[in-house]
Write a structure and sequence with these properties.
This protein is of the alpha/beta class and 297 residues long. It has helices at 13-23, 63-79, 91-98, 109-122, 124-134, 136-141, 147-158, 172-175, 189-205, 208-215, 225-230, 233-255, 270-284; strands spanning 2-6, 26-31, 83-88, 180-186, 262-265. Helix 2 (63-79) links the parallel strand 2 and strand 3 (83-88). Helix 4 packs across helix 7.
């Protein structure tokens, strides 16, 4: 049995996932397209788990490469008698970890450069609008601020392919490689907004400015990098809060489209949420008990 845990940024996914691992023998596997890169742990809010901080910032990794790594980690975890807990905020990567996506074709570097220039010239909103005109299904999966994947979707469209799954209407439980329970954390938007602002303040207090400066000129696609490089601290903080709120709203919208997802109230102590998700998994398939587990985190 696999547990898939999805929710908007600042919904408490990390704390809930860690609490689940205290209750059953589990392995946390990240499905976050930014946390996979090393060098910006504060900005990307990295936590312990598999597939966190494994690629350099200047690597052009793909969802296909991630899918192979995620499937390997999931299969190894199951073979060891443990429960993979796939923790996601990146919609496409979360799906890629749980199902067999048809991998897109190789695209010429010249095509990628052409769409990169377009994105940089017109900005994320207009580039995303251009994608929506050409491949609306792919556009629904992506946020305009996700430069790397908006460009990827445009280059795939130009190659006669699509970033979107070929049959998005099929149930996840039908497509999953292994029996899977998907839990979605529901947290009121005003609570999410408060958490986003608090987390952003904490990032600056922990030294995110020095972290971004040390990264050099790489990773422009990571939310917050450009603001920190070009704006005052106060302005950067406000812009990051706004963009993160917009991204959280997109994630909530996408989460509601996952067939078979069980909504779980996330504005509670992580231990309570974890207990409900573990109980849900045990209803679907017997999960191994953790020796000595119990109590709230």
């Amino acid at each position: 049995m696999i547990i898939g845990l999805f929710g908007p940024t600042a919904s408490g996914k990390t704390a809930v996932a860690e609490a689940i691992a205290e209750r059953i023998p589990a392995e946390l596997i990240s499905a976050d397209s930014m946390q996979i890169y090393r060098g910006l742990p504060i900005l990307t809010n990295q936590a312990a788990g598999k597939l966190v901080g494994i690629w350099p910032l200047d690597r052009q990794g793909s969802v296909g490469e991630y899918q192979a790594l995620a499937h390997r980690e999931i299969d190894a975890t199951l073979a060891a008698g443990r429960t993979p807990v796939v923790v996601g905020g990146s919609a496409l990567w979360f799906r890629a970890a749980l199902v067999d996506l048809e991998l897109p074709p190789v695209v010429a570097e010249s095509d990628r450069a052409r769409w990169q220039r377009l994105y940089d010239r017109v900005g994320g909103e207009q580039a995303h609008a251009a994608l929506a005109e050409r491949d609306p299904r792919a556009a629904e999966l992506l946020h305009p601020n996700d430069r790397k994947r908006v460009v990827r979707a445009l280059e795939l469209w130009s190659a006669g392919s699509s970033l979107a799954p070929q049959d998005a209407s099929r149930l996840w439980t039908d497509e999953a490689r292994h029996p899977t329970v998907i839990a979605g954390l529901e947290v009121p938007p005003d609570v999410i907004d408060e958490r986003i602002r608090a987390r952003t303040r904490q990032m600056f207090a922990r030294g995110v400015v020095a972290e971004v400066q040390a990264a050099g000129e790489v990773a422009p696609q990571v939310l917050g990098v450009e603001e920190i490089r070009t704006l005052s601290r106060a302005e950067a903080e406000e812009h990051i809060v706004l963009r993160t709120r917009q991204f959280a709203a997109y994630q909530r919208k996408w989460m509601r489209r996952i067939p078979g997802l069980v909504s779980v109230a996330g504005d509670r102590p992580p231990g309570e949420v974890a207990d409900e998700i573990v109980a849900l998994g045990r209803q679907r398939e017997r999960l191994p008990a953790h020796r000595g587990a119990g109590g709230d985190a």
